[in-house]
Structures are given as structure tokens and as C-alpha cells.
Amino acid sequence: MKVIAINGSPNKEGNTFHALKMVGVELVAGGIDFEILHIGNKMIRGCLACGKCGVNKDEKCATKTDDMDKWIQQVKDSDGIIIGAPVHYSGIPGTMKSFLDRLFYVGGVNGGLFRQKVAAAVVSVRRSGGSVTFDSLNHYLNYSEMIIATSNYWNIIHGRSPGEVTQDIEGTQIMRVLGKNMVWLLKMKEATKGTIESPKRELKEFTNFIR
After folding, report:
1. Rg of the chain over CA atoms, in angstroms?
2. Is 0.90 surpassed by the pTM of this model?
3. Structural domain range at position 146
4. Nearest by Cα to 76 from 29, 122, 111, 43
5. What is the DSSP letter of 58?
6. Position 207 in a domain
7. pLDDT tens across 7-41, in order?
8. CATH of the domain at 88
9. Given phi > 0 = left and psi -120 to 50 = alpha, else beta, which region is 161?
């Protein structure tokens, strides 16, 4: 089994990286393969809302100026995903937002590529805005019918300089507990494969408030 962690920070080894690594230590200790994919410093444009991914249904994005198609397959082939981000103006950084919009839209309109994978969101923050960003990240996981792993508090860790989050005693515990709970969910899901039938995917119903 494998978990892909998405580092949405512009800094490759900033505090978001350190937070993801803390979770990864527990995953690896539990026998789960772990990889951090750094996208926060890439040139990723936002979704064009062209709808071609839903028409073509080839698991690809119509925009070809980045490696989105490769990233989609990396996430699809994983058993779990962690989406990690720092806080920019009480929200998700722009590059990460563009990445998530396109990744999850393509996944959704192509038969629910990420449905029932084990997932979690992680936020690193200097001072404030962490819970808002954490909530925003979780919107993608909830909408995609993913199995969300939790910890003993919201998955937010505090620090400013790279590596400073390691001094956040409560934050490091949150990441540690999250990692252990992800291992448990992944193994429980694997152990029940073939014995407990998963709910069938229902086609999305769309309604408008204006007739």
C-alpha cells in the first residue's frame, strides 16, 4: 500500500514538508510506502472550466502546460492521499488551489477516481488562519467520497522558520496520531476487501435553484 502526500508550499522543505514527514514516519513504521510530491513551486494554471475532461473521460486535463496528467495517475494509483498546505491570507496558496481544482474535478467526472481512498488534510501556519485553510482543504476530500482519517485535534501545526514546527509539541502529536490512524484505516480497508461490499457509486444529481 502507498500514500502520496502533496506538498502545496512554495518551499520544498518548509514547515508543510516537515508536517507531512511526521505523518509519513508513522505510515512507514506501519508498513505503508510513502512519497511526498512537491507541487507548490510549479507553474500550474487554474481550471478553465472547459468541461473537456468530462466529455473525453480519458482521465486527463485539457490544459497541457504542466504535469497534471501524470499527477492524476500518481494519486489514482495510491491507496491514500494527504494534501498539505501553508496558510496564505487565511486560505490555500494559489498554486495549490489550482492544482486541487483540476485534480479533483478530473477525478470526479471520470468515475470517481479517488473515491473511498483514505485521505487527510494537513496545514502549517505561523499564527492564524489555519482552521479556515484546513476546512477548505477538506472540501475536496468530502466531495470526493474519500475516507477521511482524523487525529486528536484539527490537523494544524504552528511554526514560522523551516523546521520550527518540530517544536510545536501538541502539533507534532497531532501529526503522529494522524499517521497512526491512517495506517489503521488503510489496513482495515485492505483486510475487509472481498468480505464487505463497498457502497456502489451513485451518479451525481444536479439541481439549480433558479428555474
Report:
1. 17
2. yes
3. 2-191
4. 111
5. S
6. no
7. 999 999 999 999 999 999 999 999 999 999 999 99
8. 3.40.50.360
9. beta
